[in-house]
Amino acid sequence: MSIIFRQARLLNPLEEIDRTGSIKISDDGTVEELAFDTEITASSADDRIVDLEGMIIAPGLFDMHCHFRDPGQEYKETLETGSSAAVAGGFTGVALMPNTRPVIDSPLGVAYIRHHASSLPVDLEVVGAMTVESRGEHLAPYGKYRSYAVNAISDDGTAIQNGQIMRLAMEYASNFDLLVIQHCEDKSLTQGAVMNEGLFSAKLGLRGIPDVSEAITLARDLLLLRYLEEHKLHDPLRRPRYHVAHISTKAALDLVRQAKKDGLQVTCEVTPHHFTLSDEDLFLSEKKGYYIMKPPLSSKENREAMLEGLADGTIDCIATDHAPHASHEKDCPPDQAAFGIIGLETSLGLTISELVEKNVITMRRAIELLSVNPRRIMNLGQILFRKGEPANFTVIDPDTSWTVTQDAIRSKSMNTPFLGRVLKGRAKGIFHKGNYTENVRL
User: Fold this and answer.
1) How many domains does the chain have?
2) Can you count the helices (H) and strands (E) in the chain?
3) Co-location of 142 and 263 in the same domain
4) What is the dihedral of CA 187, 190, 192, 195, to 10 degrees?
5) What pLDDT shows up at residue 338?
6) Are residues 286 and 393 in the same domain?
7) Does 383 fall in a domain?
8) Which position among 63, 86, 292, 440 has the lowest Cβ density within 10 Å, counted as fewest Cβ atoms?
9) Rounded CA separation 78/260 (Å)
């Protein structure tokens, strides 16, 4: 039985496709037919027809920064519940950070994720730890990672503080063409701090994180990267590739902008909460624990810089940093709250509401940020709307308005500051692994 998706806006920036058309998927999950000027008709009585007039079919969304807490903290999230949240958000693939318990710092941990991922509706890419147990002391086995098809490494949540270890990590990673993903934070400036340092932290009497802590670590790393490039201390066929996780400050963004101009292989991501919220939102909220995250919600000036970076192309992709926590870890005083919020199910809606609807970016650019670019950065195969290609796409309803409620959330955790917020735009479903999975809670 084939399935025919009719009269959608087919939008694939990679192929310069942005036209109303229909797409037919064969029973083996590959594209059987694509039509822009003529209607695709059913070839048998068993064929299913899905009318998508007014909807968008885009290459399957990919989130390159997630935490599913499995193994070790399944009370917060599991691979199954995290995958359900991904489907609800319109994602056909996610990259999982290694700060589980135990840390994913060996092929054994990678194999655990791969084994369980095979039966899930979305792809689970594994980001291996940069150092053993993410302690920042000894490098993890990058060569063994590569043999298990790992494409990226990170000690996310805890930046490597030792410059020599960071240099070795970049050199070693380049030998295997591994992307280095850095959570930029000078921990000597952030110990015991919970929110952005400024007027609102002073008013609340909370220890603040100076926003320069992000730029200091990033500046060191870029100097190391530049040094390795200038002295050719790497395989000439495999230059070091460096990615800034959840960038949040103008100072850091300016460093990335200059590094790109200088020809360094540097990319960066921003989260929806960092281009939507500021530290003032935390100050005004009664549930302050739900606004505690790292990097912290920053000033309105830094938030405006993120919008500028999205508009001018300095920021390469949008990633959620989906970080589930149990209610008791967030419904508490802010200086005791766990860092992080869930984001898979609100990412698309916030992108459309805060960026597309406000003319910061176009819908085409949104798809680049949410699908094309993260796959490119992660060295994953790109999605093509062509006959014989595996069907992997997200169906988006760009005009629907919906309210973020607990009933609408499929993640095991509910730690989001966006409960009660009305968003425009939502995933209607995904087609991946030969199946069309609809968002039944629309």
Assistant:
1) 2
2) 13, 18
3) yes
4) -140
5) 98
6) no
7) no
8) 440
9) 37
Q: Looking at the predicted structure, is the pLDDT value of residue 413 above 90?
A: yes
* 352, 377, 402 - which closes a domain: 377
Residue 39's nearest CA partner among 21, 19, 12, 53 is 21
Strand-strand pairing, 31-35 and 61-66: unpaired
Q: What is the pLDDT of residues 142-154, one digit of tens each?
A: 999 999 999 999 9
Domain end among 329, 352, 377: 377
Tokens of 243: 């990615």
Based on the fold, state whether residues 253 and 236 are members of the same structural domain. Answer: yes
Residue 252, amino acid: A
For residue 380, give the nearest of 20, 93, 41 by alpha carbon: 93
- 428 located within any domain: yes
State the sign of the Cα–Cα–Cα–Cα dihedral 114, 115, 118, 124.
Answer: negative
The 8 Å CB, 24+ separation contacts for 21-27 are 23/57, 23/385, 23/391, 25/391, 25/431, 25/436, 26/2, 27/1, 27/2, 27/434
Same-domain pairing of 169 and 242: yes
Residue 407 belongs to domain with CATH number: 2.30.40.10
3-class state of residue 420 by DSSP: coil
Residue 39 and residue 64 in one domain: no
| In contact, 308 and 270? CB cutoff 8 Å | no
pLDDT at 119 over 80: yes
The mean-pLDDT minimum among 4-13, 135-144, 259-268, 433-442 falls in 433-442
- For 280-304, letters b (16+ CB in 10 Å) and e give bbbbeeeebbbbbbbbbbbbeebbe
Residues with catalytic roles: 321
- Are 406 and 362 found together in one domain? no
Place of tokens 């280095």: 180
Q: Residue 359, by phi and psi: left (phi above 0), alpha (psi -120 to 50) or beta?
A: left
Q: Which domain holds residue 336?
A: 60-377
pTM: 0.97
Residues 269 and 215 in one domain: yes
CA distances, 327 to each of 177, 332, 341, 421 (Å): 40, 9, 11, 19
Give the burial class of 317: count Cβ atoms within 10 A of its Cβ; 0-12 exposed, 13-18 middle, 19 or more buried. Answer: buried
> What pairs with residue 23 in β-bridges?
5, 34
